[in-house]
Amino acid sequence: MSLGPYASFIVTSYVLVTAVVLLLIVWIIADHRRQQARLRELEANGVTRRSGRSTVDMR
User: Residue 56, CB half-sphere, CA atoms under 13 Å: how many?
Assistant: First the structure.
């Protein structure tokens, strides 16, 4: 398979895009874990979620 005179540019571009996408995936996973830990910490301190409240009758 010949990519022509721009082979180094094409390969470099694909490698950089792959690296950026992998970094974003790792960042999202790490952020999710931090958010979950923070939520557990807040709940342990007695802070509740709004969605956990009972509904208010708005008549």
Answer: 4
Q: Are 26 and 34 in contact (CB under 8 A)?
A: no
pTM: 0.68
- The pLDDT tens digits along the chain (59 residues) read 688 999 999 999 999 999 999 999 999 999 999 999 999 999 998 887 777 665 555 55
DSSP string, the chain: ---GGGHHHHHHHHHHHHHHHHHHHHHHHHHHHHHHHHHHHHHHTT---GGGSPPPP--
For 36-57, b/e burial (b = at least 16 CB within 10 A) is eeeeeeeeeeeeeeeeeeeeee
